[in-house]
Amino acid sequence: MNSSAPVTTGFAGGVARITLNRPDKRNALDGATISALGAALRQCAGDSAVRIVELTGAGEVFCAGADLGEMQAQAQASESENLAHAQSLAALLGALDSLAKPTLARVNGDGFGGALGLLGACDIVVAVDTAKFAFTEVRLGIIPAVVSPFVLGKISQSAARRYFLTAETMSSATLKELGLVHEVVPAAELDAACTRITDALLKGAPEAQGHAKALIRDIAHGAAQDREDASILMAARLAHLRVQGEAREGFSAFFAKRKPNWRP
Predict the structure, then answer these.
(1) Fewer C-beta within 10 Å: the chain N or C terminus?
(2) Domain segments of the chain: what residues?
(3) For residue 49, with 0-12 CB atoms within 10 Å meaning exposed, 13-18 middle and 19 or more buried, which class applies?
């Protein structure tokens, strides 16, 4: 395991733990991390010894969402360049959502933006009680487009109408009420809670669990492929907004640490 890699994978007792490994960058999702996470998921999908995939973050933050350096570069990028970047995240979330093996998000800290897409795409989510979350996009002049099909697979339209628009900070308890988190525990109990869940999952038949996941995707919210296709379609909407004046003002204000011109 390469400790300097943006994503690391450990394996024990049928559980592959994939760790976002950029604690100095708050485990932000840059292009290299998205690519490495996709590769790790493909490896797990093809390994019969892997029964469960657990996703977590190194350090004290789960995932800060988009990488600030890449965000700054994308603010000046073309619409086609923005589209390619957004589509890479859409493909990753689609792969996580459609993985035939149970997935567990071990949320060890805060999560913003794209991190909430990861939670939406995982089967089971356990979060520490101190973590904070937000759909921050509208404060930058953009929208949570790519994550929306996966998040709306778990939360209501009513909840999205509030939190997509206000970008309010939410607690783990709020996310549990909304349906994006299943359990909230103190940090000292996080590993025990995850072990309890993985122990329960390991008692199930692997192929049956894969079919159960397909059943849920196909009946409850439409096929997984539909969600991935919708996310890719929404990537085009995001890419278009990223090159408009409002988004350019939002990103400029963010990096200059000033209020954007729509703020009173």
Answers:
(1) C
(2) 7-205+224-256
(3) exposed
Note the helical H segments in 138-205. 148-151, 157-166, 172-178, 190-202
| β-bridge pairing 124-128 and 103-107 | parallel
pLDDT confidence of residue 76 = 80
Could you tell me the pTM of the whole model? Answer: 0.91
1-15, 18-32, 112-126: which has the minimum mean pLDDT?
1-15
Query: Which residues are within 8 A (CB) of 223 and not within 5 positions of it... i.e. 6 or more apart?
Result: 217
Does the pLDDT of residue 3 top 70, yes or no? no
Count CB-CB contacts under 10 A for residue 192.
Answer: 10
How many whole angstroms separate alpha carbon 101 and alpha carbon 169? 31
What is the architecture, at CATH level 2, of domain 7-205+224-256?
Alpha-Beta Complex (3.90)
Give the rounded percent of residues in the chain with a pLDDT score beyond 90.
76
